[in-house]
From TrEMBL:
GO terms for molecular function: 2 iron, 2 sulfur cluster binding; metal ion binding; NADH dehydrogenase activity. Residues 245-258, 347-361, 383-392 have a biased composition (Low complexity). SUPFAM superfamilies: Thioredoxin-like (SSF52833). This is NADH:ubiquinone reductase (H(+)-translocating). Belongs to the complex I 24 kDa subunit family. Keywords: 2Fe-2S, Iron, Iron-sulfur, Metal-binding, Ubiquinone. CDD domains: TRX_Fd_NuoE (cd03064). Residues 213-399 are annotated as: Disordered.
Length: 399
């Protein structure tokens, strides 16, 4: 069944895409998947096709993302997604018992929905709330320290049309309403985000810091955050101040200055006719460290970025690389001749020309008709040849 998305969904899709640069529009795929889930309750084949259409992608690219993240549901999901943590910490504290009790009470298993379409149950590997375990979430809002009886009470209230208050976070909404928020749109319900607050385990570190007087040195919580324009202006002023603080360069004389005895005085002498000041004793000059190189001095590869250094080490270009620079080695062919300048670039260009990238022009189809047609044609070809799969394998082995 093909779904026609509403004008409101299409308008919101255009608004989401407009948030990203024109050449980065595919970055809008994640919120767009939440948007189609907000209308249908899951990411259907029609939703995949819609995202591919508005972003200029093929359906295989969209499907690869939709199947990677567990928040995108690939089959109809209930109004309330109940997730019970069964990982190590919560399991030790009774999480598995909570899940088993809910499964028996609701008559469903993992990733299954009740007959009335209200509850979809799933076990979660970790909900990142070990200090509140065992925990469960309803549409990603937390119910902390639950046991079997309190969990049953929550789902019974949901099936009766109620909205139990989570332990932390805003008041509950349906999965479709939650998907609208995840797509980047505000929850317009009256007082939707007026409730909730952090739990005591979350604030424990802050309480200890206040009790023992621990704080960040020089931290002022009232310091305003500067805008980009203010930050750029401050950086320019600091740069100008640093430039002004630099000493003026000393200009060298164009011709040697004659000393009082007619001899040439060193450049930069204090004055004409005055004896030159002896140089300050700085100790004997240290000889340059021998590097073992037979070429001119070059910067060590450590001065370069790791990517450049690795590339030059593996395949340096003879036109730019120094043959015996530390850490590099110009490869030679079997005759011992180093490659000519530009050989690496020419080889790369030839490889790119001979291996054109695969295009995305042909969308991946979701229809079963094409698969059935291919199987029928393959079977017809096999029957016409009179050879079965085993015969074909034997023939291939002989060849």
């Amino acid at each position: 069944m093909t779904t026609t998305f509403t004008d409101e969904t299409r308008e919101r899709a255009r608004e989401i895409i407009a948030r990203y640069p024109a050449d980065r529009s595919r970055s809008a795929l994640l919120p767009l998947l939440h948007l189609v889930q907000a209308e249908e309750g899951y990411v259907s084949p029609a939703g995949v096709a819609f995202c591919a259409e508005v972003l200029g992608l093929n359906k295989a690219q969209v499907g690869a993302v939709a199947t990677f993240y567990t928040m995108y549901k690939r089959k109809p999901t209930g109004d309330f997604l109940v997730s019970v943590c069964t990982n190590t910490m919560c399991n030790v504290l009774g999480g598995q018992e909570v899940y088993d009790t809910l499964a028996e009470h609701l008559g469903v298993g993992h990733d299954e929905t009740t007959a009335d379409g209200t509850i979809t149950l799933e076990h979660a590997e970790c909900l990142a709330a070990c200090d509140y375990g065992p925990v469960m979430t309803v549409n990603y809002d937390f119910f902390d320290g639950v046991d079997a009886s309190t969990a049953v009470g929550v789902v019974d209230e949901l099936r009766a049309g109620g909205r139990p208050m989570p332990t932390r976070g805003a008041r509950l909404c349906t999965l479709k309403e939650m998907a609208v928020q995840l797509a980047g749109f505000a929850d317009e319900r009256d007082g939707a985000v007026a409730d909730g607050g952090p739990g005591e385990p979350t604030l424990r570190g802050l309480r200890l810091a206040q009790q023992h007087g621990v704080s960040v040195p020089g931290f002022d919580p009232n310091t305003p955050i500067r805008s980009k324009a203010e930050a750029d202006k401050a950086a320019a002023e600091a740069k100008a101040k640093a430039e002004a603080a630099k000493p003026a360069p000393v200009e060298a004389s164009a011709a040697p200055v004659k000393g009082g005895d007619g001899a040439s005085a060193p450049t930069g002498a204090a004055g004409v006719g005055e004896p030159a000041k002896p140089a300050e004793a700085t100790g004997p000059a240290k000889p340059a460290e021998a590097s073992g190189s037979t070429t001119r001095d070059v910067k060590a590869p450590d001065d370069k970025s790791p990517q450049v250094r690795t590339a030059e080490t593996r395949q340096p270009d003879a036109g730019t690389a120094v043959p015996d620079a530390p850490g590099t080695k110009v490869p030679a062919d079997r005759t011992g001749t180093a490659p000519e300048a530009g050989d690496a670039r020419a080889a790369e260009a030839a490889g790119v020309a001979a291996n054109a990238p695969a295009g995305d022009g042909k969308p991946a189809g979701d229809e079963a008709g094409a698969q059935e047609r291919n199987l029928t044609e393959a079977k017809a070809g096999t029957d016409a040849d009179g050879a079965g799969p085993a015969d074909a394998n034997e023939t291939g082995a002989q060849k």
